[in-house]
Amino acid sequence: MEKVINEDVPKAFGLFRDLVTNASDLTSNVEALTNKVKEGAISTSQGLSFLEVKYQMLLSYLVNVTHLMVHKCQGGSLEGSQDVHRLVEIRTVLEKMKPIDSKLKYQIDKLIKTANTGTAVNDPLRFRANPDSLVSKLDEEDSDSGSNVDDDEEKKSKVYRPPKLAAVHYDGDQTQQSKLEQHMEKAKKKALHSGVIQELKAQYSEAPEEIAEGGSFRNTAMKRKEQEREEYEERNFVRLGMTKKERTALKQDKTMSHLNDITKFGDVNYEALSGKGGFEDGVPSKRRKSSGSAKKMKGKGKKKGKKRHSMH
Fold first, then answer.
1. 21 and 80: one domain?
2. Exposed (0-12), middle (13-18) or buried (19+): which is 81, by Cβ within 10 Å?
3. Which residue stretches does the UniProt record annotate as biased composition, category Acidic residues (predicted)?
4. Which of 98, 104, 214, 291 has CB atoms 3.0–4.6 Å from 254's, for a disulfide?
5. What is the pLDDT of residues 89-138, one digit of tens each?
6. What is the pLDDT of residue 86?
7. What's the rounded Cα separation, in Å, for the pair 271 and 278?
8. With the C-alpha atoms ordered 177, 183, 187, 189, is the resulting torsion angle positive or negative?
């Protein structure tokens, strides 16, 4: 222990002598700057506020360090000392100021060099970017244009114009299995509303028997459409035409019996209901084949018609 003390004491006295010398030099420099500021030789009214805050924080840091050293030299304890808390706070603030200090370093050096040497004609520093010029002015233009647009909108008529957007069903998240299940569900619902099922339901139901024109069971939806059509024609004194699809549906609805298509429930194949039929992209494969064969038959019919025409 004595050996350590004997080695540290000369070093401590050397540091004290350096401290006294540096303190005297610092005092003379601070007094000279203070006199210049008081005389008005140095203008501090239009300086950078960032540097002013930085210097105030550094000065407070030095004051608290000095007070802490005095407290330790007197043998006091650091536990619960406010100087330590203030030093930690000031150091945190100074560390947070380093990024801003590095960004302003070029601008500060340029101003100092200009103040000391004056402005040169071929000064390369004047071609560097100015941080103030990098601030975007789009916000101001947008605010001005926005106010003009608001004024124009107030002058216009306040008539509601719906957006020109069409709602589209999104099925990108559906898998092949979910599409198949959805198609099967639609097929079952369609089969339950077919003519054969409706006739069987009417036969075993306890409700009064309904006798329709043509002797067959009339579809409720078809009857409702016909009733609406008749009411419209009677009310407006006009006769509405029927499309080919509507005439075909009416003809099928008035058919005496659907027993020839016992395995099909309203154009719904039994294989589609059982899941044995082919299915691609939510459309049964047999339906695709039938559409293709129908086109072929249609083409053959045209050819035969041409041949008959040539024979005549």
1. no
2. middle
3. 139-153
4. 214
5. 999 999 999 888 888 888 888 888 887 776 654 566 565 666 666 666 56
6. 92
7. 9
8. positive
